[in-house]
Amino acid sequence: GKGYPVTSHWQTQLERLAAGQPTLLTGIRRGVEKESLRISPEGTLAQTPHPPGLGSALTHGSITTDYSEALLEFITPVSTGIDETLGTLADIHSFVYRQLGDERLWALSMPCIVSGDAGIPVARYGRSNVARMKTVYRLGLGHRYGRMMQAIAGIHYNFSPPEAFWEAAWQDDGARGSRQDYITERYLGLIRNFHRWSWLLIYLFGASPAVCASFLRGHQGHGLEPMDPEGNTLYRPHATSLRMGGLGYNSEAQRGLAVCYNDLDSYLKTLKDAILTPHPAYAQFPSGEDGDYQQLNDSLLQIENEFYSTIRPKRVAASGETALTALRRGGIEYIEVRCLDVNPFAPLGLDEETIRFLDAFLLHCLVEDSPPCSPAEQAVLDENLAAVVDRGREPGLTLASGDGRRPLAGLAGERLQGVARTAALLDAAHGPEAGAGAYLAAVEAQAAKVKNAEGTPSARVLAEMTRDGLPFYRFGLRYSERWAQYFRERALAGDALAALEAESERSLAAQRELEAADTLDFASYLAAYYDQYAAL
After folding, report:
1. Exposed, middle or buried, 445 (CB in 10 Å: 0-12/13-18/19+)?
2. What local confidence, expressed as pLDDT, does residue 22 receive?
3. Which pLDDT value is given to residue 7?
4. Residue 79 in 3-state DSSP?
5. If residue 322 lies in a helix (H) or strand (E), which one and from where to where?
6. Closest CA to 94 of 361, 447, 483, 519
7. 492 with 254: CB under 8 angstroms?
8. Mean pLDDT of the chain
9. Which pLDDT tens digit goes with each residue over 450-467?
10. Between vectors from CA 406 to CA 403 and to CA 408, what angle results, nearest 5°?
11. Which helix (H) or strand (E) holds 98?
């Protein structure tokens, strides 16, 4: 766009490098992790164990569970093709529906009808130490935040530019220091910019403006209003993604955790300290006394995953290795975006247009200047995010920016001009055969939602509920039924079916081997695991 200034050395670098080597941008590596609750035909949370045909939730490569036994999680392998990623995800859905009996997958992020904490079964993974650790961690989360949190679903998007891109960029920048340190620093810059602009993703893709009243039964002070005379649905009229606000994984305890993304050392140290320092409020839950484990420890965080963030730096960890140890060992390898709601209007919960936009947005975060973040700036960013979560579609909403408060629409428009620049480079790299202009078209589709908030998923959810007089759970059931039928009727290629069946068998054998191989008692196993944090 004309009004968008070329501010950054890296934007110019990207344009120069991509002109000479288009493949630097065609090899983006991505993967999707999509969570979905299993529900009964009536729309209540399934109380059944993990379906046996899905293999072992502990060791299966593509199908596991997250917090609750009823919260399935589907994982695609790393791929450089969007069609391949979405095709694999669709195959997993089709396969799962063959094992679900009359259950369905819930098509929204905020849960179906739930009957309090007791009605949310904690995930189980077998008898091995690693399995027990996963379950105890989840018990701890239930005690600390309430089990209701463990029925919320989301979509995680994993992203990394190809190796060839990093090599070219590092050489272009003078090949100073180690290449891995360079990559880590650039990823941290991406993360800081992501925090500056993630409110835009919440506005564009938030799809949880309302919740079932059963989710908040017994809770006061949530500030939501009834949407129907019976009070079955609670909402905020201009909300975008209640999942990302105070109703989601937000903890008063974690508010004081000032995690800094200016350098890897301080990031690792902050989380390590939170894992190793006792937190008095959690001392009431047993963590191993007389063999009773209701949590892994009584620290602010049991493990690093408990720190809930919209984006995480990641590296694939070795078996038994902590996530922080992996980052210390090899630096940042990819990032995981964690703020996407399940989109009820797409069979898979996300679609190709969303992925293309995310690629352009994340590359834009990577190539823009990214000054260090201060606690004062972080407080402003938290405030912007909260405003967009609760009131993102409110006409005239303003956000804090470098030059005072400005209308969301103006800030979004400027940011989208920058993202469009990056999208144009992606389109040029992919060439006409890959769907001419598909990246730019994805950005333009988002710009339309900024001009007219009625096009956002959150507005569409409320409009349909209002038009058809549907409480939240009926709306959710409508789309859960629709996509259940879609996947039950969708053909699953023989080789895809055979591969998923074989993986289920292999995973069950792998779980049995793990259980047979355990030699340590659980307390010693945990102690050895936590020794890694002390050694960071």
Report:
1. middle
2. 86
3. 65
4. strand
5. none
6. 483
7. no
8. 94
9. 999 999 999 999 999 999
10. 135
11. none
For residues 493 and 108, what is the distance between their CA atoms, to the nearest angstrom? 27
Angle in degrees, CA 294, 299, 303, rounded to 5? 80
**pTM (global) more than 0.90:** yes
223's CB contacts (< 8 A; 6+ apart) are 236, 390
CA 333 to CA 77: how far, in whole Å?
15
Element (H, E) at 249: none
Among 20, 529, 2, which residue's Cα sits nearest to residue 276? Answer: 529
**412 to each of 176, 201, 204, 236, 507, how far by Cα in Å?**
35, 10, 10, 22, 45
Q: Tell me which DSSP letter residue 46 carries.
A: P
For strands 71-75 and 29-39, give the pairing: antiparallel
pLDDT in tens, 125-155: 999 999 999 999 999 999 998 888 889 999 9
Amino acid at 12: T
Q: What is the DSSP letter of 272?
A: H
- pLDDT interval class at 2 (50, 70, 90): very low
Average pLDDT over residues 189-194: 98
| Residue 430: both structure tokens together | 């992919």
* Own/partner pairs, 302-306, CB within 8 angstroms, 24+ separation: 302/137, 302/140, 302/141, 302/275, 303/137, 303/275, 304/271, 304/275, 305/137, 306/137, 306/141
